[in-house]
Design a protein that fits this description.
The chain is built from eight helices and six strands. By secondary structure, the chain is of the alpha+beta class. The chain folds into two domains: 11-145, no CATH class; 162-220, no CATH class. β4 and β5 (83-89) form a beta hairpin.
Length: 222
């Protein structure tokens, strides 16, 4: 089992230093402004506050944010799982994962994938360097892309959200139908009705039959 690097090492500061070094090209070549700190939320509004190690020993979510006049690139390091991931913003509100951008470009890039388990300084530095390398490789998609491409990114994000919702619904359907089948075998018809009635219009023939039989048996019991 891996152990986290010595508590004497301030991992967020290592992250900030790596970002400042590897993303300097955004400031020098593309007029981005660099902001870093710890993320906090107040009244559902995200704040980036100065990082003070002593205040965040129990957990933190730190960010290096690069802002230009038209868009932003955000690199996040979270102590929950010690993962680093990246986002882009084309306006102050809408956030897109790197994989949304790559999906719109029909590209794949291991350097830009989120990664967990980054509990040592070298791991953090290597991952930040990889992200910078990936952004340089596909800079036309990440740095001031055309409006048509931004629209494609929004489409990809929407499609993936819809897919996730659909997969979650299918999982919930399967779980509910399995529980209803067990309840039917145990002749707990009230439970069958309670589980399946809200999903009646989505049920397959076998589950619909269980619901109808459970309803009939339940009525006969009175």
């Amino acid at each position: 089992m891996h152990s986290i690097e010595s508590e004497d090492v301030d991992l967020p500061q290592k992250f900030f230093a790596a970002c400042a070094r590897d993303f300097r090209f955004l400031e020098e070549n593309h007029d981005y402004r660099f902001i870093s700190g710890v993320v906090e939320y107040r009244n559902n509004y995200k704040l980036i506050k100065p990082y003070n190690r002593g205040h965040y020993r129990d957990g933190w979510r730190v960010v290096s944010l690069y802002e230009s006049a038209s868009d932003s690139i955000e690199i996040v390091f979270d102590s929950a799982g010690f993962f680093i991931e990246g986002f882009v913003y084309y306006n102050p509100v809408d956030r897109y994962e790197f994989n949304h951008v790559l999906g719109a470009a029909k590209k794949s890039c291991e350097d830009l994938e989120e990664r967990m388990g980054l509990y040592e300084s070298q791991m953090i530095e290597d991952k930040v360097s990889a992200i910078a390398r990936g952004i340089k490789q596909y800079k036309k998609y990440f740095i001031a892309p055309e409006a048509k491409f931004k629209a494609r990114v929004e489409v990809v994000k929407t499609q993936r959200i819809e897919q996730s919702v659909r997969q979650y619904f299918e999982y919930q359907m399967k779980d509910t139908c399995e529980r209803a089948a067990l309840a039917f075998l145990e002749k707990d018809y009230d439970q069958v009705i309670s589980l399946l009635s809200p999903l009646e219009s989505y049920l397959g023939m076998a589950d619909l039959k269980k619901l109808k039989l459970a309803t009939r048996y339940d009525e006969q019991s009175y």
